[in-house]
C-alpha cells in the first residue's frame, strides 16, 4: 500500500469512528497501521487520524453555530456531504491499487473498528454500506463478515460457509459444518469466502492456541492462509487441508486409476532396481513411498512417470499403457524432483510465470498472469512474489517456500497425477507439515499424489491414504493402510503388543519402529549385532506376497482420460520464452553483470596499455604505431582473450540448468529452442564484450582501418568459445571440472597457433614446411591471428595503395634472387654428378625438383617456352639438355628482372604523385599511423635465415608469404595454404584471407553446435565412465583371478 493510499485509508477510518474515539477503536487503528508502517512512522499516521477526527468535530460545531442563520444546512446533511466526498475519493484510490482480497481485508478492519465498542450506530451502518458498495463488495458478504465478527456462540454463526471445531458439546450445529476434536476449550470458527478462496478464523476460548506459531487471541478475526496449522496444548493439530476438505469436494471429471502390474527394472550394470512391484490407486489418494536409501524409490517414480521403461511389466492408466500411448497421457503426470528446479536469479513470480508460458500454447499472456497469481495465492506465496528466489545457501526465501514454489511449477499446469521426491527433506517439522497439508489439499481436488518421504512425524504419516514400503534391491514389502504397517511387521516378527499400532495415550505412530523391525540384525553368541539381517529383503517380499493377494491382471478397456489444458507452444514461442527468461536472470545477477561488463575493458586496458611501446631515446619521444614492436603480440593475445572470455561466460550455463533441463525434457519441450536461446544470449554478451575490448584497445594503441574486421574476428572467436563452453558444460557434472578444462583448451591454442612456436620449427615428423600442418588447421587461434595480421598488413590506408606493386616486386624478386639461382645450382650439381658418374639418386631428385619448378613457370608464361621438360630425367639428361635448360633459366631470370624493374618504376611513380598531392610529411605520418614495422617483418618473413629450401620434389619458398596466394592445391576443396597467405583457395576460387578465415570459424561454430545438440561429447564421457566403472574393474578382477590360479598351479607343482 503506497503512502497516498494509506493516508486516504487512515482518513476513512476517522470518518467511520464515532464522534468520540474510544481506546479500543484507537488500538484497532494502531494494529492496522503497524502492519503497514514501521514504528518511526506510526505516530505520523495516528496524528493524521486524530487531526481528521477533530476536523470533523469542528465542522460539526460550525454547523451548530449556523443553525440560527437563514438558509443554514442541517448538521446531518453537512456531515454526510463531507463524509461522502472523502469516501468516494478514498474508494477510488482503493479500487485502483488494491486487489479484491486486499479490499475485503480492509473492510474487515473497518468492521472490527466499528464493533470495537460492541455497538453499531445507524450512521456507521450506512457508512459501511456505502464503503462496501464503492469498493464493489456484495452486501451479503458484508453481512456475513459483520455476523462472523460479532458472533460469540455457535447458534449465532449458523451459515453453510462456517465451520465449527469444538469438542462436540453442542447439541445442534444448525447449518454449520463441524469437526470434533479433543482437548479444546470453547470453539474455533472458520468463514469460507469461495469467490476469493480465502478462509477467516476466529477463536473463542481461554486455552492458549497458536496459528503458525503466533498466539491466536480470543474473539480476534484473522486470515487463515493456505498451508496453515493451528496448535494448542494437547490439541491435535488442525491443518489447512482438514478445514478445506469440509468445504470442497473432489473435483468432478474422469476418475483416474493407475495400476502397476509386476514391474521390474534392471540397470545397465545388471543391478536390480525394482522387482515385482504392484500397486493400484485412484484419484483423490495421497500415497507415501518409503524405504531405505538405494531401495528403488526414485526408480519406481521414474517408471510410473514414464522417465524410464520397465524391463518387465506394465503401468496402466485408465486402460492406457503409459509407455505405448505417451501422447494420450501427455500433461496428466507431474513430477517434482528432490532437487531445486528454480532459477535463482529470477523472482518467485517470474519462475512460475515463465514455467507457465512454456506449458500453455493457447492461453493469452493475461490468462497466464491470472493463473500465476491464483497459483501463488493458493500456495501462500503471493506475499513473496517479488522476492528473488536465491540459492539454497544464500537464502532469500525459506526452505518451505522453495518447496512450495517447486510444487507450483508442476501444479500450475494442473496434472492429475503428481510424483514428489522427498518434498520435506531439509525442512523444519512445521514446514514439513505445511507442505504435506498442501499435498493433502490437492487430493481433495481430485489429484492422485505420490510422495517419497523419510522419517515422517506421526501426524504426517497418518495423512497418507496408502503406503508402499520398498526394501533393498527394489523388493516390495508392504502396500496398504499406513497405520496398519506397524501391526503387520510386528506380527511377522512375532513381537509382544503386536496388535498395538499406535500409542494408546496420545495416538502417535512410531514410524521409526517400522524400519527398526525391518532391519533387525541377528545377534551372535556374545550378544553383539552382526551385519546379517534377521529377515532378508527377499524373505520380507515373500511374506508380503503371501499376505497381500495381488489382483490378477485383467484386460481393461481404455477409459476416458481427463482433459488437460497443457499444450507445448511452438518452437518459436519456446525460443522467445527461453530467451526472455535467460536475459532476465542475467540482468538480475548484478555480480555477473559487473564481472562480464568490466572484464573486457579491464583486460583491454591492461593488455594495450602495457604493450604501448615507444622509443624514449629518440629526439621526438612519443608513441608511433609503426614503431610499436608489440602489435603482433597484442593481436595474438587479443585472440586468446576473446577465447578466454567466450569460455568463461558459457562454462557453467548448462551445469546450473541441468535439473531444469531434465524437467523440460520430461515436458517434451524443444531442446533446440532452449539451445538456440542460450546461444543467442551468449552471442549477444560476446558482442558487447568484444565491442568494449576493441573500443578500449584501439583507442590506446591507435589501431585504425581494421576496426570492423578486428571486432568481427574477435566476436567470431568468442562465439566459437561460447559453443565449446556449452559443450563441456553439457558433458561434465562439476563446475570445477569445467574450469580445470579451460586451461587445457587454451594451452593448445597457444602452442599450435604458429605464433609461440612457428609451424616450420616443430617436430618434422608431424609438420610441413610448405603449409600449415593439420593440427594448426584445427586451431581457432591460428585462423583468428592470421586474419588480423593479413588484414592489418593489406587493409591499412597506406599499404592498400602500394600492395599490388609490392606484390609484383616481391614475387619477381623471389624468383630472380632465390628461385632461379637455386635451380641453376641444382642443375650444376646434377651435371657434375652426371659427368663424374656419382650420386645418381641425387641427380634424379634434383632433376625432379627442376622439372616441377619449370612446369610451374610454364603454366604462367606458356608451355611453348620450354619443350624439353620430359627429358629432365636421369635417363635422358645430357649436356645438351643441361645447356638448353641453363639458357631457359637465364631467359626466365631476365624476364623477372624486367618485371621487377617495371613494377618498381610504377610504384615509385605512384609514390611521387602521391607525395606531391599529400606532401612528404603527411605521407610519412600516414605510414607511421597505419603501418607497423614489426608486423611487416613477420608477414614478409624477411628475418628468416632459410629463405628457400628443398622439399619433396619441389622448392619451398619461406620468404614473402604475404605476397603469394595459396598454391599447390590437391583438389577443388583443398583449402590448405602457407601461413599469412593473402588469399585462400576453395572450390576453384580464391578468397581474401580475413573473410575466408572468419568463414572457417563460423563453419567450426556450426559443426560444434551440431556436437552440442546431439550431445556427442556427453555420450563419449558417459561411455568412458561406464568403462571405468564396470568393464575395467571386471577385467582387472578377471586378470587377478587368472594370476592367482597360475600361482596356485606353481605352488602345487613344487
Fold and architecture overview:
The chain is of the alpha+beta class and 1054 residues long. It folds into 6 domains: 1-148, TerB-like, CATH 1.10.3680; 151-248, Tumour Suppressor Smad4 (Sandwich), CATH 2.60.200.20; 339-414, no CATH class; 571-794, no CATH class; 799-989, no CATH class; 1022-1054. 53% of the residues lie in helices and 12% in strands. The chain has 35 helices and 25 strands. Strands 15-16-17-12-18-19 form a 6-stranded mixed beta sheet, with helices on both faces. Strands 2-1-3-4-7 form a 5-stranded mixed beta sheet, with helices on both faces. Helix 25 (707-731) packs across helix 35. Residues 57-71 have low confidence and may be disordered.
Element layout with pairings:
Blueprint: H1 3-16, H2 23-34, H3 39-65, H4 75-97, H5 100-114, H6 122-134, H7 139-150, E1 162-166, E2 177-180, E3 187-193, E4 198-204, E5 209-211, E6 214-215, E7 221-223, E8 229-232, E9 235-239, H8 240-247, E10 257-266, E11 272-282, E12 286-291, H9 297-304, E13 312-317, E14 320-321, H10 326-329, E15 333-336, H11 348-357, H12 365-378, H13 399-411, E16 417-421, H14 429-444, E17 448-452, H15 458-461, E18 466-471, E19 475-480, H16 485-492, H17 511-518, E20 521-523, E21 529-533, H18 537-547, H19 571-588, H20 590-610, H21 631-650, H22 653-656, H23 658-666, H24 671-701, H25 707-731, H26 735-751, H27 774-777, H28 780-794, H29 799-836, H30 840-861, H31 879-918, H32 920-930, H33 933-940, E22 948-950, E23 955-957, E24 983-986, E25 989-992, H34 993-1013, H35 1016-1053
Parallel strand pairs: 1-2, 12-17, 12-18, 15-16, 16-17
Antiparallel strand pairs: 1-3, 3-4, 4-7, 5-6, 5-8, 8-9, 10-11, 10-13, 13-14, 18-19, 20-21, 22-23, 24-25
Helix pairs in contact: 1-3, 1-4, 2-3, 2-5, 4-6, 5-6, 5-7, 8-14, 11-12, 11-19, 13-14, 16-17, 19-24, 20-21, 20-24, 21-24, 21-25, 21-26, 21-28, 24-25, 25-28, 25-34, 25-35, 28-34, 29-30, 29-31, 31-32
Amino acid at each position: 500500500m503506497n503512502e497516498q493510499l494509506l493516508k486516504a485509508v487512515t482518513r476513512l477510518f476517522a470518518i467511520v469512528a464515532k464522534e468520540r474515539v474510544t481506546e479500543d477503536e484507537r488500538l484497532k487503528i494502531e494494529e492496522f497501521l503497524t502492519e503497514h508502517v514501521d514504528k518511526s512512522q506510526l505516530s505520523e499516521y495516528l496524528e493524521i487520524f486524530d487531526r481528521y477526527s477533530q476536523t470533523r468535530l469542528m465542522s460539526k460545531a460550525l454547523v451548530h453555530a449556523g443553525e440560527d442563520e437563514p438558509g443554514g444546512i442541517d448538521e446531518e446533511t453537512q456531515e454526510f456531504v463531507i463524509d461522502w466526498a472523502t469516501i468516494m475519493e478514498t474508494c477510488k484510490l482503493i479500487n485502483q491499487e488494491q486487489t479484491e482480497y486486499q479490499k475485503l481485508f480492509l473492510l474487515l478492519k473497518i468492521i472490527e473498528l466499528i464493533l470495537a465498542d460492541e455497538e453499531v450506530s445507524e450512521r456507521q451502518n450506512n457508512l459501511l454500506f456505502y464503503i462496501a458498495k464503492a469498493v464493489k463488495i456484495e452486501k451479503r458478504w458484508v453481512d456475513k463478515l459483520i455476523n462472523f465478527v460479532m458472533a460469540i456462540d455457535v447458534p449465532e454463526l449458523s451459515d453453510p460457509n462456517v465451520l465449527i471445531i469444538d469438542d462436540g458439546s453442542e447439541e445442534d450445529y444448525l447449518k454449520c459444518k463441524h469437526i470434533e476434536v479433543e482437548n479444546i476449550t470453547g470453539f474455533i470458527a472458520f468463514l469460507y469466502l469461495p469467490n476469493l478462496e480465502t478462509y477467516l478464523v476466529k477463536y473463542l476460548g481461554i486455552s492458549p492456541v497458536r496459528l503458525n506459531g503466533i498466539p491466536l487471541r480470543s474473539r480476534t478475526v484473522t486470515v487463515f492462509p493456505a498451508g496453515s496449522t493451528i496448535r494448542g496444548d494437547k490439541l491435535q493439530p488442525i491443518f489447512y487441508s482438514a478445514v478445506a476438505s469440509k468445504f470442497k469436494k473432489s473435483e468432478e471429471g474422469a476418475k483416474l486409476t493407475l495400476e502397476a502390474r509386476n514391474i521390474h527394472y534392471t540397470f545397465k550394470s545388471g543391478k536390480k532396481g525394482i522387482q515385482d512391484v504392484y500397486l493400484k490407486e485412484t484419484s483423490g489418494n495421497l500415497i507415501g513411498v518409503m524405504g531405505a536409501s538405494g531401495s528403488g524409490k526414485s526408480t519406481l517414480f521414474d517408471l510410473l512417470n514414464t522417465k524410464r521403461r520397465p524391463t518387465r511389466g506394465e503401468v496402466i492408466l485408465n486402460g492406457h499403457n503409459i509407455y505405448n500411448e505417451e501422447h494420450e497421457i501427455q500433461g496428466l503426470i507431474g513430477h517434482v524432483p528432490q532437487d531445486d528446479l528454480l532459477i535463482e536469479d529470477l523472482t518467485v513470480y517470474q519462475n512460475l510465470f515463465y514455467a507457465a508460458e512454456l506449458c500453455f500454447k493457447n492461453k493469452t499472456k493475461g490468462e497466464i498472469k491470472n493463473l500465476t497469481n491464483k497459483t501463488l495465492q493458493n500456495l501462500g506465496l503471493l506475499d513473496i512474489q517479488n522476492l528473488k528466489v536465491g540459492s539454497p545457501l544464500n537464502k532469500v526465501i525459506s526452505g518451505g517456500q522453495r518447496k512450495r514454489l517447486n510444487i507450483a511449477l508442476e501444479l500450475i499446469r494442473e496434472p492429475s497425477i503428481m510424483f514428489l521426491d522427498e518434498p520435506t527433506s531439509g525442512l523444519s517439522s512445521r514446514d514439513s507439515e505445511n507442505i504435506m497439508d498442501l499435498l493433502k489439499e490437492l487430493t481433495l481436488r481430485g489429484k492422485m499424489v505420490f510422495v517419497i518421504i523419510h522419517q515422517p512425524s506421526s501426524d504426517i504419516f497418518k495423512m497418507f491414504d496408502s503406503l508402499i514400503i520398498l526394501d533393498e534391491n527394489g523388493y516390495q514389502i508392504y502396500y496398504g493402510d499406513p497405520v496398519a504397517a506397524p501391526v503387520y511387521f510386528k506380527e511377522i516378527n512375532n513381537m509382544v503388543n503386536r496388535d498395538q499400532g499406535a500409542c494408546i495415550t496420545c495416538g502417535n505412530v512410531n514410524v521409526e519402529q517400522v524400519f527398526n523391525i525391518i532391519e533387525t540384525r541377528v545377534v551372535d553368541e556374545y550378544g553383539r549385532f552382526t551385519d546379517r539381517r534377521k529377515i532378508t529383503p527377499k524373505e520380507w517380499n515373500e511374506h508380503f506376497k503371501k499376505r497381500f493377494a495381488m489382483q490378477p491382471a485383467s484386460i481393461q478397456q481404455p477409459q476416458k482420460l481427463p482433459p488437460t489444458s497443457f499444450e507445448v507452444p511452438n518452437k518459436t514461442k519456446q525460443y522467445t520464452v527461453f530467451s526472455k527468461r535467460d536475459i532476465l536472470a542475467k540482468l538480475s545477477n548484478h555480480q555477473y553483470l559487473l564481472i562480464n561488463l568490466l572484464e573486457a575493458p579491464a583486460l583491454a586496458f591492461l593488455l594495450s596499455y602495457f604493450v604501448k611501446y615507444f622509443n624514449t631515446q629518440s629526439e621526438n619521444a612519443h608513441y608511433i604505431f609503426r614503431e610499436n614492436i608489440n602489435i603482433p603480440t597484442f593481436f595474438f593475445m587479443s585472440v586468446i582473450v576473446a577465447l578466454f572470455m567466450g569460455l568463461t561466460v558459457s562454462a557453467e550455463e548448462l551445469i546450473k540448468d541441468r535439473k531444469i533441463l531434465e524437467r523440460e525434457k520430461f515436458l517434451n519441450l524443444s531442446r533446440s529452442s532452449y539451445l538456440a536461446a542460450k546461444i543467442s544470449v551468449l552471442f549477444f554478451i560476446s558482442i558487447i564484450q568484444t565491442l568494449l575490448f576493441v573500443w578500449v584497445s584501439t583507442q590506446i594503441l591507435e589501431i585504425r582501418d581494421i576496426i570492423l574486421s578486428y571486432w568481427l574476428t574477435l566476436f567470431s572467436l568468442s562465439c566459437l568459445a561460447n559453443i565449446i563452453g556449452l559443450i563441456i558444460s553439457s558433458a561434465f557434472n562439476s563446475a570445477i571440472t569445467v574450469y580445470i578444462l579451460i586451461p587445457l583448451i587454451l594451452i593448445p591454442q597457444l602452442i599450435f597457433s604458429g605464433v609461440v612456436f612457428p609451424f616450420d620449427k616443430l617436430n618434422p615428423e608431424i609438420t610441413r614446411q610448405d603449409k600449415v600442418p593439420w593440427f594448426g588447421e584445427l586451431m581457432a587461434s591460428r585462423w583468428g591471428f592470421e586474419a588480423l595480421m593479413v588484414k592489418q598488413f593489406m587493409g591499412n590506408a597506406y599499404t592498400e595503395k602500394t600492395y599490388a606493386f609490392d606484390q609484383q616486386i616481391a614475387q619477381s624478386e623471389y624468383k630472380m634472387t632465390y628461385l632461379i639461382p637455386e635451380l641453376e645450382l641444382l642443375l650444376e650439381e646434377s651435371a657434375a654428378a652426371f659427368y663424374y658418374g656419382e650420386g645418381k639418386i641425387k641427380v634424379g631428385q634434383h632433376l625432379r625438383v627442376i622439372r616441377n619448378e619449370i612446369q610451374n613457370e610454364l603454366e604462367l608464361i606458356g608451355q611453348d617456352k620450354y619443350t624439353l621438360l620430359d627429358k629432365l630425367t636421369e635417363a635422358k639428361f645430357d649436356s645438351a639438355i643441361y645447356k638448353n635448360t641453363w639458357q631457359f633459366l637465364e631467359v626466365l631470370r631476365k624476364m623477372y628482372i624486367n618485371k621487377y624493374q617495371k613494377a618498381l618504376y610504377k610504384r615509385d611513380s605512384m609514390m611521387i604523385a602521391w607525395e606531391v598531392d599529400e606532401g612528404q610529411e603527411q605521407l610519412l605520418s600516414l605510414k607511421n599511423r597505419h603501418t607497423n614495422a614489426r608486423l611487416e617483418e613477420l608477414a614478409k618473413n624477411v628475418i628468416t635465415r632459410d629463405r628457400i629450401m628443398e622439399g619433396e620434389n619441389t622448392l619451398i619458398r619461406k620468404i614473402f608469404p604475404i605476397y603469394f596466394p595459396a598454391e599447390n592445391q590437391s583438389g577443388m576443396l583443398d583449402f590448405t595454404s602457407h601461413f599469412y597467405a593473402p588469399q585462400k583457395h576453395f572450390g576453384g576460387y580464391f578468397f581474401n584471407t580475413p573473410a575466408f578465415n572468419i568463414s572457417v570459424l563460423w563453419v567450426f561454430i556450426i559443426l560444434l553446435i551440431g556436437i552440442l545438440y546431439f550431445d556427442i561429447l556427453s555420450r563419449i564421457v558417459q561411455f568412458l565412465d561406464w568403462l571405468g566403472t564396470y568393464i575395467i574393474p571386471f577385467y582387472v578382477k578377471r586378470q587377478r583371478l587368472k594370476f592367482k590360479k597360475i600361482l596356485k598351479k606353481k605352488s602345487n607343482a613344487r
